[in-house]
Structure formats: structure tokens, C-alpha cells
């Protein structure tokens, strides 16, 4: 397999990140370029609200990325997540002839069939096998086994239909760049944040974003549970705004002095002055700021604990908790999580196999973990190399679409007429259009 360049877009509440990575023939990933634009108000909790505004910002990112590489982006992968994303259980069975061997094609056909499972007010955005029941025996990897009955136990990752629809409107309709594929953001993060041992032993991956906090649980090498909590780092910032400061100033105060645990009375004796250039914080006490951030992060942590309990795996997570995301940099957040859950906590780091072409980007920021995960999971080459544009056909002497300038010239053969659509194609087109209209909705409720 030759070297591939893969492009991806990560849609966040606070930022839109674009990334290009190079995968070698051996599968090693080098991050070639990362660019970002603030999301403004066009994205809320992972869902595009203003298509025009989002398309404009994404186009700027794509232009910046293309300026740093030798080629044009021909298609692009997109991470899909947000408040509505969660998992449901689903099983699909097949009765086979006696002593039929389980093949990759059989498993793939079962997964493809599961995509047709109707989910009210939602759309399937990912399918994750957990176990297979083969002649009433549990198997994790059934390929090659002979049996007469097989059942696949699956986790369907679902979200509201507008997630994909608005991404398509932005990229394909507005910017004219096809979507190479949709990748569930939580899976992308786990692909680079978790080790194989952690997925096997059982762990919780918590992605602290600006608008949402995503909880993913792995056990025995499989994804077992995803839930999205509609609170994130931006909620802390807005709470600080209640101390009579503007949001940009509140963001600076949160980054510089925010903490998950209020310091003790003894520690407060050496209270630092809230001194940030361009921020008037003379009327804000350090202790007050700490109490504001602690109150909100404790609320988020309580929601996380509730989701861990809801998953049914609370007693099976011996690898502990892994945290990532921009808001995971809050001071003493690992200590608070350990205090509340009793589990070991570590901050996610990238695998050593992933390198950076640019030194300035090599100082890794966990806010880009998800974007890097998208490139790690994607497969298709996304660039159109410079100088590879097809040469225009000559205007005469060919069978191409050009017509002779002189009508008395000998006629060139007409291009073959494309086959007419059949009845099935017409029915399928009408059905797809009606389904698209039915799925349009705007669900802003929190789903477990």
C-alpha cells in the first residue's frame, strides 16, 4: 500500500480543527498540518446550527491546509458527535446450512443489514460489534468457525439526523468537497488515546470538550457504552462571567487560575493575585474564582459517575479513567476524579508511532486528540496532487463532447447514450427524498 495523505475536519463548540496526516505504506502516521478557526456561534454541542457561517469557516481552514501541502483537498473525513450521540444494543441472527464457515463477507453482510434498523428520531452513525453467539457459544472473533447459527451482538452509535445532513450541506453543497466518510468522534479519540491493554482490562475515556463531555467505556477490547453530557469547559467560562467579567476575560481567568478543588485555608494564605494583561480582575478574589470552577466541574463529574453506573460496567474497569480534550487541562481535575470515583486517572498521550512534521505542532495539545484520531482511523487518500489535472481533449478529430466549429465538416460519432434509469432506480430516488424530509428535526434534549 502506497503513502496516503488523509484530510479530516473536527467540529467543536469552541473551534473547528482541520488536519492533514500522511500514512506510510507500513501504517505510520505523520501529522503534516493542523489549522483551526473559532466556531463562533455556528456550532453548538457538536451540531452545525448556521450552515452558511460554518461553511465559510471550514473553507478558510481548507485553504490554509492547502497552502501548507503540495496538492488540493479532493475529499475530507468528518468527525460526528455531539449531545444527541449515544449507544443502543441490537442483535441480528442468521440461520445457516449445517457446517457453514463464518467468513468476513458473512459478518459484513450482517453489519450492513443492521444499518436498516429503524431508530425513532435518530440515525445510525456507527456500528460496533461486541460479541458473536455461534451455535450458542460466545465468540469475540468468529471468522473461520463452522456453525449453523450465528448471532451478532452490536452497539449502534446513533444521533439526530441533522448531524450528517448539515455537514453534507456545508461541505458538499456549499464548498463542493465530498465527504470521504463520517467517523464517530468518540471512536476516533479512543483510537489514539487508549492502549490495547486499557481496552481489554476495562476503562473509561472522558473527553472534556467546550460544549459537551463524552463518556466512552471499553471492556474486553470492545466499545460498550457512549453517553454525552451537555456540559463542558464553556460552562465554566460562563459561570466566571457571573463575577462581572466579559467572556474573553473569563476564559483567560479559567485557564490561568481555574481549579477543580478549592485550596485549603492554609494554601489560601499564599493567594496569588489575579494578574492577567488586559483583564481587570481587581474586584475578584482568587478563592471566589476557585469556588465557581469547583462547583461546575463537580456537577459534571457527578454526571460522569451516573453514566458509569448506568453502563453496568462500574465494577469491571480495572484500567481506570483516561481524560482528554481541551477542558481536561483544568488544574487538579485528575485528583477530583480519583477522589470521587476511587479509580486511577491519567491524562491521555499520543502513541509514540504518531509524529509531527512541524515542530511548532509537536508540542501536543489535547484539544487536538480527536482530530488526530480521525486521521488515524481514516483510510482513503484525500488529495489531488498538483499537476495531475486531466488534459483537455482536442476540439476536432475526437469522439469527445466537442462539436466541429464548421457545420459542414464531417460529423464525429456521438458519445454513447447513458442507459435509462429503471423503475427500481426511480422508486429508490423518490423513497430516499421522502426519508430525508422525514428525518429532518431539531432535537435539543439530553439523551442518556
UniProtKB/TrEMBL annotation:
<keyword id="KW-1003">Cell membrane</keyword>
<dbReference type="InterPro" id="IPR050696">
    <property type="entry name" value="FtsA/MreB"/>
</dbReference>
<dbReference type="Pfam" id="PF14450">
    <property type="entry name" value="FtsA"/>
</dbReference>
<dbReference type="InterPro" id="IPR043129">
    <property type="entry name" value="ATPase_NBD"/>
</dbReference>
<dbReference type="InterPro" id="IPR020823">
    <property type="entry name" value="Cell_div_FtsA"/>
</dbReference>
<dbReference type="GO" id="GO:0043093">
    <property type="term" value="P:FtsZ-dependent cytokinesis"/>
</dbReference>
<dbReference type="InterPro" id="IPR003494">
    <property type="entry name" value="SHS2_FtsA"/>
</dbReference>
<dbReference type="Pfam" id="PF02491">
    <property type="entry name" value="SHS2_FTSA"/>
</dbReference>
<keyword id="KW-0132">Cell division</keyword>
<comment type="function">
    <text>Cell division protein that is involved in the assembly of the Z ring. May serve as a membrane anchor for the Z ring.</text>
</comment>
<keyword id="KW-0131">Cell cycle</keyword>
<feature type="compositionally biased region" description="Low complexity">
    <location>
        <begin position="394"/>
        <end position="412"/>
    </location>
</feature>
<comment type="similarity">
    <text>Belongs to the FtsA/MreB family.</text>
</comment>
<feature type="region of interest" description="Disordered">
    <location>
        <begin position="387"/>
        <end position="424"/>
    </location>
</feature>
<feature type="domain" description="SHS2">
    <location>
        <begin position="6"/>
        <end position="193"/>
    </location>
</feature>
<comment type="subunit">
    <text>Self-interacts. Interacts with FtsZ.</text>
</comment>
<dbReference type="GO" id="GO:0032153">
    <property type="term" value="C:cell division site"/>
</dbReference>
<dbReference type="GO" id="GO:0009898">
    <property type="term" value="C:cytoplasmic side of plasma membrane"/>
</dbReference>
<protein>
    <recommendedName>
        <fullName>Cell division protein FtsA</fullName>
    </recommendedName>
</protein>
<keyword id="KW-0472">Membrane</keyword>
Amino acid at each position: 500500500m502506497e503513502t496516503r495523505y488523509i484530510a479530516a475536519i473536527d467540529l467543536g463548540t469552541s473551534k473547528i480543527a482541520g488536519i492533514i496526516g500522511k500514512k506510510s505504506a507500513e501504517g505510520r502516521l505523520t501529522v503534516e498540518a493542523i489549522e483551526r478557526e473559532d466556531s463562533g456561534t455556528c456550532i453548538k454541542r457538536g451540531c452545525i446550527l448556521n450552515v452558511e457561517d460554518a461553511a465559510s469557516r471550514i473553507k478558510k481552514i481548507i485553504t490554509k491546509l492547502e497552502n501548507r501541502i503540495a496538492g488540493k483537498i479532493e475529499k475530507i473525513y468528518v468527525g460526528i458527535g455531539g449531545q444527541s450521540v449515544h449507544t443502543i444494543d441490537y442483535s441480528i441472527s442468521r440461520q445457516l446450512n449445517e457446517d457453514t464457515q463464518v467468513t468476513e463477507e458473512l459478518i459484513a453482510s450482517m453489519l450492513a443489514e443492521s444499518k436498516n434498523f429503524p431508530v425513532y428520531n435518530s440515525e445510525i452513525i456507527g456500528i460496533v460489534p461486541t460479541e458473536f453467539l455461534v451455535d450458542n457459544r460466545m465468540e469475540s472473533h468468529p471468522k473461520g468457525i463452522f456453525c449453523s447459527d450465528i448471532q451478532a451482538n452490536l452497539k449502534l452509535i446513533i444521533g439526530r439526523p441533522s448531524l450528517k445532513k448539515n455537514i453534507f450541506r456545508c461541505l458538499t453543497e456549499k464548498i463542493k468537497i465530498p465527504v470521504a466518510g463520517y467517523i464517530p468522534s468518540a471512536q476516533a479519540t479512543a483510537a489514539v488515546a487508549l492502549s490495547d491493554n486499557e481496552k481489554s482490562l476495562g476503562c473509561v475515556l472522558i473527553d472534556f470538550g467546550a460544549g459537551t463531555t463524552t463518556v466512552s467505556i471499553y471492556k474486553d477490547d470492545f466499545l460498550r457504552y457512549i453517553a454525552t453530557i451537555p456540559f463542558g469547559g464553556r460552562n465554566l467560562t460562563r459561570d466566571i462571567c457571573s463575577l462581572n467579567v466579559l467572556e474573553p476575560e473569563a476564559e483567560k481567568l479559567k485557564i490561568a487560575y481555574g481549579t477543580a478543588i478549592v485550596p485549603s485555608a492554609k494554601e489560601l494564605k499564599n493567594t496569588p493575585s489575579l494578574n492577567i494583561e488586559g483583564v481587570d480582575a481587581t474586584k475578584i478574589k482568587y478563592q471566589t474564582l476557585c469556588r465557581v470552577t469547583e462547583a461546575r466541574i463537580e456537577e459534571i463529574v457527578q454526571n460522569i459517575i451516573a453514566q458509569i453506573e448506568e453502563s453496568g460496567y462500574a465494577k469491571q474497569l480495572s484500567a481506570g479513567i483516561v481524560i482528554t480534550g481541551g477542558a481536561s487541562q483544568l488544574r487538579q481535575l485528575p485528583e477530583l476524579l480519583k477522589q470521587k470515583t476511587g479509580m486511577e486517572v491519567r491524562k491521555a498521550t499520543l502513541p509514540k508511532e504518531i509524529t509531527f512534521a512541524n515542530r511548532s505542532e509537536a508540542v501536543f495539545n489535547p484539544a487536538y486528540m480527536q482530530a488526530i484520531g480521525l486521521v488515524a482511523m481514516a483510510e482513503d487518500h484525500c488529495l489531488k496532487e498538483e499537476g495531475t489535472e486531466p488534459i483537455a481533449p482536442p476540439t476536432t478529430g475526437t469522439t469527445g463532447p466537442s462539436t466541429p466549429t464548421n457545420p459542414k465538416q464531417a460529423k464525429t460519432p456521438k458519445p454513447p447514450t447513458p442507459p435509462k434509469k429503471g423503475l427500481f432506480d426511480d422508486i429508490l430516488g423518490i423513497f430516499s427524498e421522502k426519508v430525508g424530509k422525514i428525518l429532518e428535526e431539531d432535537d435539543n434534549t439530553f439523551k442518556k
